[in-house]
Known about the structure:
Elements: H1 29-37, E1 70-75, E2 78-84, H2 92-100, E3 127-134, E4 137-138, E5 144-147
Antiparallel strand pairs: 1-2, 1-3, 3-4, 3-5
Amino acid sequence: MRDLPVSIYDTAWKNAIESYIVSIDMTARNVQDEAKKKGLPWDIAKGFDTFLPISAPVSPGIVKDPHDVELWLSVNGKMRQHDSTNLMLFQIGRQLSDISRVMTLEKGDIVLTGTPKGVGPVVPGDVMEAGLKVDGRDIDEARIKVEVKERHGLYDFAET
């Protein structure tokens, strides 16, 4: 994908898409807030185990127009996010073009294109479900169901 077209309006980028996925992009807000207070990068707040569950791949043949897909997320059966990809500030071709100016995109790379409004906290015991609809039809491969669990391990967050 190194040679993406300069024009963001060209559709050649579609040939670079192997598949689409749905993901739930988690953020440890306590870690993020602490890093921001100190003027530090906060990417660590997204790097914990289990923080990016993804769906099975969805064929580009199913997602004919990625700018006309419904994305949704529910927590404990209550819809929290539900919007169309036609609301994205920058379309996929533009995003890939911008990214490829900074780094080489390789086969298998995952690019997250944004999050619909409705971001909010979850707690252990919550069940998150997410998916996408094409032409009003749920796509089974794109469904994710995740139970939020307390993470146990070597890392203990403490404000410094």
